[in-house]
Write a structure and sequence with these properties.
The complex is a heterodimer.
Chain A lengths: L3 E6 L3 H12 L4 E4 L22 H13 L2 E3 L3 E7 L2 E6 L2 E12 L3 E3 L12 E2 L1 H9 L8 E7 L2 H11 L3 E7 L3 H10 L4 H13 L5 E3 L2 E7 L3 E7 L4 E5 L2 E6 L1 E3 L2 H5 L4 E2 L2 E2 L12 E3 L9 H15 L7 H20 L15 E3 L4 E2 H5 L4 H8 L9 H11 L13 E2 L17
Parallel strand pairs in A: 1-2, 1-6, 2-3, 6-19, 8-15, 9-10, 9-15, 10-11
Antiparallel strand pairs in A: 4-5, 5-6, 7-16, 12-13, 13-14, 17-18, 20-21
Helix pairs in contact in A: 1-2, 1-8, 3-4, 4-6, 5-9, 8-9
Chain B lengths: L3 E6 L3 H12 L4 E5 L7 H4 L3 E2 L6 H17 L14 E5 L2 H16 L5 E3 L1 H7 L9 E5 L3 E2 L2 H14 L3 E4 L3 E5 L2 E4 L4 E9 L14 E12 L7 E4 L1 H7 L5 E8 L4 E10 L8 H14 L7 E12 L6 E4 L5 E5 L5 H17 L23
Parallel strand pairs in B: 1-2, 1-11, 2-8, 4-13, 11-18
Antiparallel strand pairs in B: 3-7, 4-6, 5-6, 9-10, 10-11, 12-15, 12-16, 13-14, 14-15, 17-18
The chains are: A alpha/beta, B alpha/beta.
Chain lengths: ~425, ~375
């Protein structure tokens, strides 16, 4: 198989922009994504409303398609087979992809923080619940508390409300004082300001309570109520669902498996978006949580760089700098208050795959120590959930990433091109 | 006078077992570790407590060590996950079946219980093995355990008896009763015991080679495998000192997960996965147990065994009268940790040993090799 000139992993805003730029400049480009359609997490297609379009999404996808780049959806990268070969799973089949230049646009996932009751059925990630609803899950008439931190909470609450949910409250752990400078700075980005205002309007009479966070969720078989606090007062709200997320954690696993250097938890890139490994580029949230606009401009720069279109236009570099500054303000505004790092009790589960409690982890000294001695992060999710939590709780930096990135049948290691039936675990 | 009678370098399972044995003997012990307790060679392997009969000396040490594990077993904390699973040495054909009988005779002479299984007995014991196998030797008293937690258990018992852990310290030089750390600090001790697994940076002339291995762990499938399963062909492949080899070797964990091995490679000090080796290792495993191919594999990793030419460890004094070794355990560091600890402390104190310690003495190998 001939290697692709440019292979892009991730068909979100960063990956689409990168592929479009590289393809327009004469490269043979393919984009792999594990979802059935382009858009990534933020532009996830809504099967219940196929004609309801986000303008930015439509423009990006149209530009991508006219550029001539190929989209290969439904393919999940599971392993690195050689320095320039990736192994992907596609519905039980395995395929290898070779490349001359690789661009990683692997996005971010929600960060969860453990608190008593967070593992109850009925407690969802905020973005996770939104994705479920877009996939057809009905929340009509459901009483939902949205809690945690980050701009995603507003967007999710507005979306759930549109689908007929009764959003009781949005509890944002950051204080009004903390968020205010960020909100004011949005004056410099009218598009973002309008989007925020639109969400607020869509929320109607649902209160947006700043400086307020969940301390526990109650229920036997499933969620019955959520207890919130503002630090002084504590109250309990009956509800059917809790949509909860504490901002985002970058998906850096593939970059790490490829040997790319991380810096403070993010993939280190140079001015051309190139990682520490030559010919591997990275754009979007893995390089720093800064939102969709940053992802798009970084993606475009990465695509141009991968196509050897130098120098990069200064207008793009200026936009990237502006969006990076936005990202820094975003991170600062929604930084975690110390109280939300102390919600877990001794018995609260932190690692759901291996049932490791907060109490078991407290005595460990670092991530490797915790993994080896408690099996935290050693289950099928390979620490994707608990790793982000323990990084926030204890300051542990995940050390190494082990193949495969996602569980695969043993036979996938034997013949990567063979066709396999996905087995049922347990 | 130095503050410590004994400084142990390396808090792996061997170093920790030595710390406990020395603390029990009343020595003032410090144990030095640069990383995580049980996080090096100890964490890389399977955790199979097994009697092996490559040589009379190997049989003596593994049988002695296994008896110590079995005595210890009732008091081990639950998270050590010690289980008396037994080993099944699987014979694929009649030639390997003759090996089964001779192995049984050897074990009987050493007082090790074992039982020959015919094809039907083997199929009953492990129904997921392929049909057509010739039989097996069941060694019922072999065990499995989770090595990092076992290392930590030894260490915590040693600390209860006054041993001191010095974590986060990397040794730059050692010898003549002194350990110099890379951070500039140093400590003195009457004796130093090097138990640094496959890492011979401190004594590069040690006749130890790194032998790389691959392991895969699956998701939880309780009941699929009941014993530690090892092909008898393993003896042929594991004996080779030069060529790369793979063998069917699978271990059931208490969690229901399966550890699938094994591979042996010389001359590859990297930690990277070698996909060709991994592939032949797993193909070998699937050949013996076809259902493995559909099980979900969640993690693959590599590690390095510390191999000597005669496949026996280096336990005892060196030319530097202050420096002792407990190194070079190849694939038997977990099994041999308790026995090696007793032998090492016997050597330190000039005590008589329960088994003949001569075959493991570093002095059996040319003297100059073990000068600091």
């Amino acid at each position: 198989m001939k290697p692709m000139d440019v292979l892009v992993v991730g068909a979100g805003p960063a990956g689409l922009a990168a592929a479009t730029a590289a393809s327009r400049n004469g490269c043979r480009v393919a984009v792999l994504d594990d979802n059935p359609a382009a858009g990534g997490q933020i532009w996830r297609a809504d099967i219940t409303r196929p004609h309801h379009e986000d303008a930015a999404r439509s423009a990006a996808i149209a530009a991508f398609h006219t550029s001539g780049a190929a989209l290969l959806p439904g393919r999940r990268i599971v392993d690195v087979r050689s320095p320039s070969t990736l192994l992907a799973e596609a519905g039980g089949h395995f395929e290898t992809y070779r490349w001359d230049r690789l661009i990683l646009g692997t996005g971010a996932r929600e960060r969860f923080l453990p608190f008593p009751g967070w593992t109850l059925p009925g407690v969802f990630g905020a973005g996770g619940l939104q994705a479920l609803v877009k996939g057809g899950y009905s929340v009509s008439g459901k009483r939902i508390v949205v809690a945690g931190t980050g701009p995603l909470l507003l967007a999710v609450a507005a979306h759930l409300r549109e689908y007929g949910a009764s959003t009781i409250t949005v509890a944002e752990q950051a204080s009004a004082l903390q968020i205010l400078p960020f909100a004011v700075s949005l004056m410099r980005s009218p598009g973002k300001l309008l989007q925020g205002a639109g969400y607020r309007k869509a929320l109607g009479d649902t209160p947006y309570q700043t400086g307020c966070w969940p301390i526990s969720a109650q229920g036997d078989e499933e969620l019955r109520s959520v207890t919130l606090t503002d630090g002084k007062r504590t109250w309990t709200i009956e509800c059917d669902l809790l949509a909860c997320g504490f901002h985002l954690a970058p998906n850096t696993e593939l970059a790490q498996l490829l040997g790319c250097t991380l810096q403070e938890g993010f993939v280190r890139v140079d001015t051309q978006q190139q990682t520490s490994v030559p010919n591997i580029y990275c754009a979007g949230e893995p390089t720093g949580i800064a939102g969709v606009d940053a992802a798009q401009v970084q993606g475009e720069i990465a695509g141009l760089a991968a196509a050897d279109c130098n120098p990069i236009p200064t207008s793009l570099l200026a936009r990237r700098a502006k969006e990076a500054a936005f990202g820094r303000r975003l991170t600062h505004a929604f930084r975690l208050r110390p109280e939300v790092l102390k919600l877990a009790s001794q018995e609260t589960i932190v690692c759901r795959c291996e049932d490791v409690t907060f109490g078991q982890l407290q005595t460990r000294s670092n991530w490797t120590d915790a993994k080896l001695h408690t099996r935290c992060g050693m289950g099928p999710c390979q620490g994707r959930i608990c790793g982000a939590a323990t990084e926030a709780l204890f300051g542990w930096q995940p050390t190494s990433v082990r193949a495969p990135l996602f569980p695969v049948p043993v036979a996938a290691f034997c013949d990567e091109t063979s066709s396999l039936n996905a087995p049922s675990a347990r | 006078m130095p503050a410590f009678d004994l400084a142990i370098i390396g808090a792996g399972i061997v170093g920790c077992a030595c710390a406990l044995e020395a603390a029990r003997a009343g020595l003032r012990v410090v144990i030095v570790e640069r990383g995580v307790v049980g996080g090096g060679t100890t964490a890389a392997g399977m955790g199979h407590v097994v009697v092996m009969d490559d040589s009379p000396a190997q049989l003596a040490l593994t049988a002695y060590s296994r008896s110590l594990w079995r005595t210890l077993a009732p008091q081990l904390p639950a998270d050590v996950e010690y289980e008396s699973r037994g080993t099944l040495w699987i014979a694929a054909d009649d030639e390997e079946m003759t090996e089964v009988f001779s192995k049984q005779a050897t074990y009987a002479r050493a007082g090790i219980t074992s039982q020959v299984l015919d094809p039907r007995g083997l199929a009953e014991a492990e129904p997921y093995l392929r049909s057509g196998l010739a039989g097996a030797l069941l060694v019922p008293d072999d065990g499995v355990l989770y090595p990092p937690v076992a290392a930590e258990y030894f260490l915590s018992e040693a600390r209860r008896l006054g041993a001191v852990l010095l974590p986060g310290h990397e040794v730059g030089r050692c010898g003549k009763g002194r350990i110099q750390f890379t951070n500039g600090a140093s400590i003195e001790a009457e004796r130093i015991l090097l138990a640094s697994g496959a890492n011979i940076d401190l004594l590069p002339s040690l006749p130890i080679q790194k032998r790389k291995g691959h392991l895969l762990i699956t998701d939880r499938y309780p009941g699929v495998v009941s014993h530690q399963l090892v092909e008898l062909g393993y003896l042929k492949s594991a004996h080779k000192l030069t060529a790369d080899s793979v063998a069917f070797n699978i271990q059931p964990r208490l969690t229901g997960q399966l550890l699938i091995g094994s591979s042996r490679q010389y001359g590859d000090d990297s930690r990277e996965i070698n996909h060709a080796i991994l592939r032949s290792m797993l193909e070998r495993a699937i050949e013996y147990m076809p259902c493995l191919k559909g099980l979900s594999g969640i993690r693959v990793w590599t590690g390095h065994r510390a191999a000597t030419a005669d496949k026996l460890p280096l336990i005892g004094p060196t030319a530097d009268p202050t420096l002792f070794l407990a190194m070079g355990f190849e694939g038997l560091g977990i099994t041999n940790a308790p026995g090696a600890a007793v032998l090492a402390v016997d050597a330190l104190l000039g005590r008589a040993s329960a088994i003949d310690a001569a075959p493991y003495l570093p002095s059996r190998i040319q003297q100059e090799a073990v000068h600091a």
